[in-house]
Amino acid sequence: MKRILLSCLLVLVAVVPAWAEESLLFLTDQDFAPYSMIVAGQPSGIDVDVLNEAAKRSGLDLTIKAVPLKSMLDAIRNGSCDGAVSLFRSPDREQFALFMEAVPVHLSDYVLFTKVGNRIPFAEYQDLKGKVIGYVGGVDLGPDFEAARKQGDMLVKEYRDLRDMVAGLLGGEIDAFAGNIDVTYYRLKDMGLTSTIVYLPRKILTGKPSYAVLSRASALKGKDTVAQKLEKALDDMHKDGTYNTLARHYLIRF
Question: Which of 62, 96, 241, 252 has the most Cβ atoms closer than 10 angstroms to its Cβ?
């Protein structure tokens, strides 16, 4: 009888998936509050809380580290992390990232922010002729923005992060900058600038989904299974209200 029990135990151990025995490393953007940020030295924000809950429900041992956006993209490319949260989907990024496209982590609206009193008409990108528009390097602002940049409908200036970009606007380096509404207003509130910087009515992007991803180059085994488990957990969290409960800690609109 003991031999039979031992044999069964060995079989069970043998079929445990490799990802269940290792801690997965996920990265997130450290400068995307309230979705992802560093608070008291630890990763925090809506995306971080949502991913941690999804991993718990999926039975995954997962560690999240907050880093600059460019560092996160490089790590996904070279496989030095297992995944990240969260990214816009694009043909270029699909070359190095597996998108968990069944369920977005969050939806984003992007607009142009400028100083109060600046009169910048913006019905179409040609209206920005001669204007200098700032953006954070690594952020995908969609095909229309990229086409306008290439056609010279506007001049663009790349910044390391949102704080530097705000300083560039206030210092006269740029006429406006592209920013996520939630993220930018969260930062402007902290800086006491909500009455100094406003956004133009036309949106650059509306309801654009941002996804959790896995690195194609990482050594993680069973990626399809990991993705399916996290997608199911995210879907369940939206349906049972957990997503809104977590998000409401940071944004009252949820």
Answer: 62
Q: How far is CA 11 from CA 4, 6, 14, 59, 221, in A?
A: 11, 9, 5, 20, 19
Q: Which residue has the tokens 């496989």?
A: 79
β-partners of residue 89 are none
Summarised one tens digit per residue, pLDDT across range 120-155 is 999 999 999 999 999 999 888 999 999 999 999 999
Q: Are strands 31-32 and 36-39 parallel, antiparallel or unpaired?
A: antiparallel
Block residue for tokens 């997962």? 62
3-state secondary structure the chain: CHHHHHHHHHHHHHHCCHHHHCCEEEEEECEECCCEEEECCEEECHHHHHHHHHHHHHCCCEEEEEECHHHHHHHHHHCCCCEEEEEECCHHHHCCEEECCCCCCEEEEEEEEEECCCCCCCCCHHHHCCCEEEEECCCCCCHHHHHHHHHCCCEEEEECCHHHHHHHHHCCCCCEEEEEHHHHHHHHHHHCCCCCEEEEEEEEEEEEEEEEEEECCCCCCCHHHHHHHHHHHHHHHHHHCHHHHHHCCCCCCC
pLDDT digits (tens, 9 = 90+) for 183-194: 999 999 999 999
Instruction: At 192, list the tokens.
Output: 């006491």
User: Is the distance from CB of 169 to CB of 176 less than 8 angstroms?
Assistant: yes
